[in-house]
């Protein structure tokens, strides 16, 4: 059972043993860390829908950066206490390096240099009176001098966040000073777009923008083949391909389906169509509850009405004018909700004048509820 759970980890934020289809994102960022401070690939914005694996990818980048000697402020959710938590995480993660360069002792304690009392701990005066920007700058200077970089990871990026403004402003100044720092922020498309459009944060437009696209069927199938062989499960290629297609490119569905198949079978067993079908149905139910229902709960009644109007199109692509007619509103009025839903990561533009669902199984879930 433990082996199954390490290969397939179907919970938000849990880390599977192998990441599928994200190798290029990882290699691009790591290449940036290996370059001089200020390299464009050291600042990355990741756009992804719910269940696209943003959090898992952030943790993977954290592990890779540590191996290069970076002090990592592990993924911090954008919130009111975010800045304080970042400073605390850098101090905690950097303490082993700071201890190698302890300050000389005086009769009354440690010599205070640049506001530090010992290691990466600030003096009481600095801790109580100085700004986040001052503290982050001192930490970056000290660690850069000792040959270590700082990587800051932000999850669930929020639009129009004053804390994000402070962080990015501070980061820009650190880069200007040539300090060894890097920053990755991940969020829904609308939150990232709003952050980029913030006039105060134009610096971010030079950062690397990465959209976490749906996984390819081929990548998922190859992963399933490797995983099921490791679990000693004999699954025919056609059934494995059915399972891969049923993920609809969602990393979360990949984990759910893989886990549910493995949970229905014993090592050495020949997997049957009934077992695969049952695993897919159980996974769809979990996905609809965890992703679809949660997504809809955050939307307005009119947002949901727009989505409901889209479900009449069986081919998955809806014309905005048709949606407006079904809602009994003008096309201009419908456009307002189109924009809101794109920003929320629920739908995406298919082509000019047309949209489609961006969340797998959302249309099916809505039809079942209606």
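Sequence proposed for the structure above (370 residues):
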């Amino acid at each position: 059972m433990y082996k199954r759970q390490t290969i397939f980890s179907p919970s938000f934020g849990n880390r599977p043993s192998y990441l599928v289809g994200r190798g290029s994102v990882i290699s691009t960022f790591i290449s940036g860390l290996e370059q001089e401070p200020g390299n464009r690939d050291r600042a990355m914005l990741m756009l992804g829908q719910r269940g696209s694996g943003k959090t898992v990818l952030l943790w993977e980048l954290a592990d890779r950066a540590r191996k290069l000697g970076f002090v990592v402020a592990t993924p911090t959710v954008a919130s009111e206490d975010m800045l304080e938590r970042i400073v605390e995480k850098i101090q905690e993660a950097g303490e082993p390096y700071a201890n190698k360069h302890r300050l000389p002792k005086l009769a009354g304690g440690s010599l205070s240099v640049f506001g530090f009392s010992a290691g990466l701990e600030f003096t009481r005066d600095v801790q109580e009176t100085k700004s986040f920007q001052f503290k982050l700058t001192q930490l970056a200077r000290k660690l850069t001098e000792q040959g270590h970089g700082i990587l800051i990871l932000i999850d669930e990026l929020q639009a129009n966040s004053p804390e994000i403004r402070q962080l990015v402003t501070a980061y820009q100044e650190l880069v200007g000073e040539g300090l060894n720092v890097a920053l990755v922020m991940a969020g829904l498309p609308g939150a990232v777009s709003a952050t980029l459009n913030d006039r105060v944060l134009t610096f971010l437009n030079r950062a690397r923008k990465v959209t976490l696209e749906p996984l390819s069927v081929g990548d998922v199938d190859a992963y399933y083949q490797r995983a099921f062989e490791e679990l000693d499960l004999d699954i025919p290629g056609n059934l494995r391909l059915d399972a891969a297609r049923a993920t609809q490119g969602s990393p979360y569905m990949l984990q759910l389906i893989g886990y549910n198949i493995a949970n229905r079978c014993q090592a050495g067993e020949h997997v049957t169509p009934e077992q695969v079908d049952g695993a897919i149905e159980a996974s769809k139910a979990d996905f609809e509850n965890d992703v679809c229902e949660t997504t809809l709960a955050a939307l307005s009644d009119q947002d949901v009405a727009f989505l409901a109007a889209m479900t009449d199109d069986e081919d998955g692509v809806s014309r905005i004018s048709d949606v407006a007619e079904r809602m009994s509103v003008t096309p201009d009025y419908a456009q307002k909700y189109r924009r809101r839903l794109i920003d929320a990561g629920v739908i995406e533009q298919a082509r000019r004048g047309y949209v489609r669902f961006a969340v797998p199984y959302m249309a099916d879930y809505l039809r079942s509820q209606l």
